[in-house]
């Protein structure tokens, strides 16, 4: 077997899209600034020329109409990908996404094979362009929410989404756009709803997703030099959540930290910890800690942004504390809430 | 188009005088002030654009070079106490509403002395004391805030008028027309301004916009709707003042489509491939708002070459000072980052 091809987070998406469009003539993409610009994150670069204006379809800035037309086209038997560029713009199409796409199978028995792709995650751009919508969307019955970290998973998850039956929200972290790594071939699918062990370890489990995976891997690297063997679980999909992989890991290590950049209150981390409590409570040696974004919008100034997010130092400190504590930790603030 | 209501209808020439350009008032000092504001905006934007390319503006910015007359004409057509709500491309609106350039520049940098302490940034500037009810990162959203401001004005009977801005791209988002409709049926003191610079990011708006013009579309909502030469500050000012007077008198909203042009790409550093260099040159050489207005003032004997040089020098000095302030201003205190989210959440200890 030859070594897998290398690519970036963004070119992996392009490649997956191109292959699926070649494989299935009903797959098409709609959104603003796709044909010439290739999207705001180069996600469909070069596909306009290859597939033409009908299948790389430019729209006006009409988010409700974009998602609505995707829902209807999916019902008609096509395979639309609505590309919102930024996840934040989904707010203008929430009814179409949540009250239509997510519920039509349940109400009327007709699946809606729709993919809504958007870049997301905290970066520059201030409060209105840095929402963590995964929190709200994973709470919507009927939606799958994927949030890959590696180029490999971007491509493989896209393929699964485009060959599945039901709506998938495809979230890609802005800070990973240019990140490099191996990319699978045309038939290498990554199943939706399955986490992966990004790094095996025996002392403590760090559960995370998206940009958090890279941070967790770095923290694990640092801690391995201090005698702490960290296992990192990359969720890849937030809904449906891969409970078995998370619980299996925590049962082995007996200790867990959840790293999540979303705002603290009722965020994904809270759900993950509740799941661990449900299914692995008697295996735990310490309470589960979480390192999350502060419960705050994202400001413009980089120094303020940094102060709100999980950073390497806090993750290292929290994971070390959870991994090494014997008996009750008297400082309940360990890992509680925001980075600071 | 309905003609039942003779207040509605599209004029394709500047509203108050379809016959030709509005007469120049004889008030030399005031008009030179307008020109000074336009020069200030031009200098600010060119400087900030260069700084953005050097990485000084986190996240970059959307320069409004070429659109100065729209902003200054609007601000000069309003009274103190009137309100403007802007877009993602709004430094010109902010400066025309006389936010201090120091504070705007420092805000772009994300510094403590910024208009919003570094929290807002280029797309989210605000100064409620000066009537800037936010510039906005969400296409079409500023108009909604202005709509609400107009509703507030009508409930409180405080006589203020609100101006809501959006672009040709914003003319295709549904919320824009919800706002226009409600302003019309509630007869609110709102001036709706579509700043039509022909492009939304890399999309030529004519390729994704039905109908003959945005102003024509608006007329269907039953409010007067006009196209205005957005490169003529006086035409803008006259149209806005007339619309604001009308709104203040209780006669309701007006829609103004300002025909303008942005010289730079959508954002600083964008490689522009979707229009010709020729087209840009055409607009720059024949319709530049700063040059046209200074020529007009000169012809009318209201501006000497020395006065023009003096205005340009003053703009340069002001902006140089703004850059110094932005450079030297400290970063905001990181310990404040999660504060002032909501009085409710602060009291519950949720923010940390
Ligand atoms: C709801 C929403 N959708 C998409 C965007 C991304 N976006 C920002 S500016 C812009 C183009 C806006 O074009 P226009 O309204 O013509 O304003 P201009 O940039 O020309 O000033 C787009 C698509 C956004 N900010 N908000
Ligand atoms: Mg535009």
List the helices and strands and how they pair.
The complex is a heterodimer of chains A (340) and B (352).
Chain A: E1 5-8, H1 9-23, E2 27-31, H2 47-55, E3 56-58, H3 63-75, E4 79-86, H4 94-101, H5 104-108, E5 115-120, H6 134-137, E6 144-146, H7 151-163, E7 168-173, E8 180-183, E9 196-199, E10 204-208, H8 211-224, E11 230-234, E12 237-239, H9 243-253, E13 256-263, H10 268-280, E14 289-293, H11 302-308, H12 312-324
Parallel strand pairs in A: 2-3, 2-4, 4-5, 5-7, 6-7, 10-11, 10-13, 13-14
Antiparallel strand pairs in A: 1-8, 6-12, 9-11
Helix pairs in contact in A: 1-7, 3-4, 8-12, 9-10
Chain B: E1 9-11, H1 28-53, H2 68-77, E2 83-85, H3 91-96, H4 101-109, H5 141-156, E3 162-167, H6 174-185, E4 190-196, E5 199-200, E6 203-204, H7 214-219, E7 224-229, H8 233-248, E8 254-259, H9 277-287, H10 289-299, H11 305-328, H12 343-348
Helix pairs in contact in B: 1-2, 1-10, 1-11, 2-8, 4-11, 5-6
Bound molecules: thiamine diphosphate and magnesium ion.
Residues 167-169, 197, 199-200 of chain B line the site of magnesium ion.
């Amino acid at each position: 077997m030859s070594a897998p091809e290398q690519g970036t987070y963004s070119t992996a998406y392009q490649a997956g899209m191109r292959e699926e469009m070649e494989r299935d003539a009903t797959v098409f993409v709609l959104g603003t600034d796709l044909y010439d610009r290739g999207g705001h994150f180069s996600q469909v670069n070069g596909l306009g020329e290859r597939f033409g204006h009908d299948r790389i379809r430019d729209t006006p800035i009409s988010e409700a109409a974009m998602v609505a037309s995707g829902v209807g086209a999916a019902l008609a038997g096509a395979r639309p990908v609505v590309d919102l560029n930024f996840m934040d713009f989904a707010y203008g199409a929430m009814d179409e996404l949540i009250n239509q796409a997510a519920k039509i199978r349940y109400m009327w028995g007709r699946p809606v094979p729709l993919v809504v792709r958007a870049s997301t995650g905290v970066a520059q751009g201030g409060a209105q362009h840095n929402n963590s919508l995964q929190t709200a969307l994973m709470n919507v019955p009927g939606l799958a929410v994927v949030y890959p970290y590696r180029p490999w998973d971007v491509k493989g998850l896209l393929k699964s989404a485009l060959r599945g039956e039901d709506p998938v929200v495809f979230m890609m972290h802005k800070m990973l756009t240019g990140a490099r790594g191996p990319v699978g071939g045309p038939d290498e699918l990554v199943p939706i709803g399955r986490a992966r062990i990004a790094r095996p370890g025996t002392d403590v489990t760090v559960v995370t997703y998206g940009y958090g995976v890279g941070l967790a891997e770095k923290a694990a690297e640092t801690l391995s030099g201090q005698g702490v063997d960290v296992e990192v679980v990359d969720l890849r999909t937030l809904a449906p959540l891969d409970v078995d992989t998370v619980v299996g890991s925590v049962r082995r290590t007996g200790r867990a930290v959840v790293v999540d950049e979303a705002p603290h209150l009722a965020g994904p981390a809270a759900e993950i910890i509740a799941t661990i409590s449900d299914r692995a409570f008697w295996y735990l040696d310490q309470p589960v800690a979480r390192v999350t974004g502060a419960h705050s919008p994202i400001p413009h100034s980089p120094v303020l942004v940094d102060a709100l997010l999980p950073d390497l130092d806090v993750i290292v400190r929290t994971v070390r504390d959870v991994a090494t504590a014997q008996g009750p930790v008297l400082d309940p603030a360990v890992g509680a809430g925001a980075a600071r | 188009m309905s003609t039942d209501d003779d207040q509605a209808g599209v004029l394709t020439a500047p509203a108050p005088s379809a016959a030709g350009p509005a007469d120049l008032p004889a008030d030399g000092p005031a008009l030179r002030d307008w020109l000074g504001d336009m020069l200030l905006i031009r200098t600010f934007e060119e400087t900030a654009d260069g700084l953005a390319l050097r990485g000084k503006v986190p996240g970059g910015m959307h320069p409004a070079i070429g659109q100065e007359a729209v902003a200054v004409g609007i601000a000069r057509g309003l009274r103190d106490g009137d309100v403007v709500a802007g877009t993602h491309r709004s430094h010109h609106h902010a400066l025309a509403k006389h936010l201090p350039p120091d504070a705007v520049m420092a805000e772009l940098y994300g510094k403590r002395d910024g208009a919003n302490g570094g929290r807002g940034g280029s797309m989210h500037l605000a100064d409620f004391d000066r009537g800037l009810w936010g510039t906005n990162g969400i296409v079409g959203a500023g108009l909604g805030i202005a709509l609400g401001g107009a509703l507030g004005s009508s409930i409180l009977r405080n006589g203020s008028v609100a101006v809501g801005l959006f672009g040709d791209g914003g003319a295709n988002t549904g919320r824009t027309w919800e706002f226009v409709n409600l302003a019309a049926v509630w007869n609110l003191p709102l001036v709706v301004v579509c700043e039509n610079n022909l492009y939304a990011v890399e999309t030529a708006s004519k390729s994704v916009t039905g109908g003959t013009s945005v102003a024509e579309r608006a007329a269907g909502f039953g409010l007067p709707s006009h196209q205005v030469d957005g490169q003529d500050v006086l035409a803008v000012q006259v149209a806005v003042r007339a619309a604001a007077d009308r709104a203040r008198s209780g006669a309701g909203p007006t829609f103004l489509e300002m025909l303008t042009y942005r010289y730079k790409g959508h954002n600083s550093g964008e490689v522009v491939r979707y229009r010709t260099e020729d087209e840009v040159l055409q607009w720059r050489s024949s319709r530049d708002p700063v040059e046209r207005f200074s020529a007009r003032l000169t012809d009318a004997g209201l501006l000497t070459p020395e006065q023009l040089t003096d205005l340009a020098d003053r703009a340069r000095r002001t902006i140089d000072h703004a850059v110094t302030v932005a450079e030297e201003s400290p970063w905001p205190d990181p310990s404040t980052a999660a504060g002032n989210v909501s009085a409710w959440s602060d009291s519950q200890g949720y923010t940390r």
